[in-house]
Amino acid sequence: MTDRLYYQDAYLTTFTGMVIGQKTQDGGLWLALDRSAFYPTSGGQPYDTGVLRYPEGEAYVTDVQVEGDTVWHRVDREVPPRTQVEGEIDWPRRFDHMQQHGGEHILAGCIWNLFGGVTRGLHLGQEDSTIDVTMPDGRVHLSPQEMEELEEMANRRIQQDAPIKSWFPDEAELDSLPLRKPSAVKEHVRVVAAGDFEMVPCGGTHPGSTGQLGMLKIISIIPAKGKMRVCFVAGMRALKYYQTLYSACQQAGSLLSAGADTLPQAVEKLQANLTQARYDAVQWQKKASQALAAQLSSQAERLGEYVLVVHQAEGADMEGLKTLAQQLIAKPHTIALLAASQQEGGVVTFARGELVQLDMAKLLRDSGAKGGGRPDFAQGKAGSLAVLETAVQAIRGLYST
Ligand SMILES: [Zn+2]
């Protein structure tokens, strides 16, 4: 059995204890101590890390788990049984967990008071924490106004700097306490209370007063397995979150010559400008393509009643060739054989006006390109632009007089 020192004092960072057990599990070495301030993963709060020092050296604690009433410490080296050790927990990690865990109590209490929502579980993550809530009407969202109201109430309770206390009441006292949630266990129930607004059974570690939570910010509210998942940060994480947002807003603001509060309008304006610019570009491309089509038609080779336009476009893509071809074959006697070189080989577009009796898809494949289309319009890829010359020869063979 381990005397869990954090029950009495969540601020205890160093302690002495004795190795009373040893085991190998999950590929690691674990030690049991007769007393420990290390918090084992439980109730949604992750384990502490730290170090165990003894005369011959020191062992790092990389995981802590509880089994029955014994706390097991995963260590990176063997420590002989009955060794007296001095433990030291990684305080910044623990205090961060205390802030998030305490934040969960405040948030869950406010959700209960404001909406009658019941919290089903806490997950304390590396970046942020989540609680899953069952709302009385089954909904899985809060309105923006409700979210604001919830955050304001939580932060008012933090600013009250109300004491957070924990104790083990006897059965009679436990029955008389106004707990927000009933206890999951019957014996040895630990109760945690914050001011006069929060009281639940809990075995975790918490700051001594709500003021030490600093600030609480909700990050998101999303549906999760039929419940409402509230994602939040508290304490130093809330400051870090603000710093990240501040930096992002500053950078975006300087790019857009706007303040943080006018960023949405600046982005809206930018989007409108972009839409206009895209429209203008399409119009210009159309005009340029029309001019090119007119020029190519005027210089085209005449094959009896037909007109053969052969053109290799610089830097064009499939779409550009398509637009140009469409303009060329508006004239019903035109045959357009267009190509553009690309990194590997090229792209080709073979098209014809409505008075030309030719299957352009067949011509495209017969010339050695890969692709297809309709009898009057085909597109494809070619290993080399030699296919263009093959197609030209084929057309001349058919129509030269
Ligand atoms: Zn707690």
Description:
- By secondary structure, this protein is an alpha+beta fold.
- It folds into 3 domains: 3-89, Elongation Factor Tu (Ef-tu), domain 3, CATH 2.40.30.130; 95-244, Threonyl-trna Synthetase, Chain A, domain 2 (Threonyl-tRNA Synthetase, Chain A, domain 2, 2-Layer Sandwich), CATH 3.30.980; 287-399, Diaminopimelate Epimerase, Chain A, domain 1.
- It has helices spanning 91-115, 144-159, 171-176, 236-256, 263-298, 318-328, 360-366, 386-399, and strands at 3-4, 14-25, 28-33, 35-36, 50-54, 57-67, 70-75, 84-89, 118-124, 129-134, 164-167, 191-194, 198-201, 216-224, 227-234, 301-303, 306-312, 334-341, 346-352, 370-374, 377-382.
- The strands form 5 sheets. A 6-stranded antiparallel beta barrel has the order 2-3-7-6-5-8. Strands 16-17-18-19-21-20 form a 6-stranded mixed sheet, with helices on both faces. Strands 9-10-15-14 form a 4-stranded antiparallel sheet.
- It is elongated.
- The N and C termini lie far apart (106 Å).
- The model has no long low-confidence stretch (mean pLDDT 94).
- The structure holds zinc ion.
